Amino acid sequence: MKNVTDSFVSLGYWPFAGSFGFNTDILATNPINLTVVLGVLLFFGKGVLSDLLDNRKQRILNTIRNSEELRGGAIEQLEKARARLRKVEMEANEFRVNGYSEIEREKWNLINSTYKTLEQLENYKNETIHFEQQSAINEVRQQVFQQALEGALGTLNSCLNNELHLRTISANIGMFGTMKEIID
Fold it and tell me: What is the 3 state secondary structure string of the chain?
C-alpha cells in the first residue's frame, strides 16, 4: 500500500513537456480548484439558486397562507358548532322542562279522570242500591197488600152474603185498578 501512495506522490515531481500539465499535488491544487468551482457556481448558479430559493419561499408563504385560511375556516366551523351546541342544549333543556310539565299535567289529568270515574261508579252503585231497595219495598208492599186483601176477603167471605160479597169484590177491584194506575 505504501508503494501506491509513493507512486502518486512521485508523479508530482515528474517534469512535463511544454506548458500544459497536471499538477497532482492535492494540497496545492484543491484550494485553487475549489475557488474556481465556487466562483463559477456563484456566477452562473446565482440566478438558479435565487430562483430556487424564491420558489421555495413562495411555496412556504402559500403554505402559510393556506394554513391561515384553513385555520380561519376551522375557527368559523368551530363557532358554528358551538352555536349549534348551545341551541341544542337550550332545546334539550326546553324539552326536559316541557317534558316534566307534560308529565305532571298528564299525572293530574289521570288522577282527575280516575276520581271522576270513581265518582261515577259510586253514583251507579248508589242508584243500583236505591233501585234494588225500591224494588224490594214494592215487592214487600205487594205481598203485604196481597196478604191483607186475602185476609179481608177471608173475613168478608165468612161474614157477608153473596150479593154483598159481589159488591165488595167489585169495589175492591176498582180500588185495586186505581192503585195500580197510581203505581205505574
Answer: CHHHHHHHHHHCCCCCCCCCCCCCCHHHHHHHHHHHHHHHHHHHHHHHHHHHHHHHHHHHHHHHHHHHHHHHHHHHHHHHHHHHHHHHHHHHHHHHHHHHHHHHHHHHHHHHHHHHHHHHHHHHHHHHHHHHHHHHHHHHHHHHHHHHHHHHHHHHHHHCCHHHHHHHHHHHHHHHHHHHHHHC
